[in-house]
Amino acid sequence: MSLASETRRAVDGNPFLVTALRAGVVNYTAAARYLDVDGETDAVATAIRRYAEELPPYETDARDVRVRMERGITPAPIDGAKHETALLAVGGTSFRSDGGELTAIAATGDVDATALGAALGRLESDGIEPIAAGVGEGTMMLVVDDRDGVDALRTVEAALEAVPEA
Question: InterPro entries, alphabetically (predicted)?
Answer without folding.
Answer: DUF7523
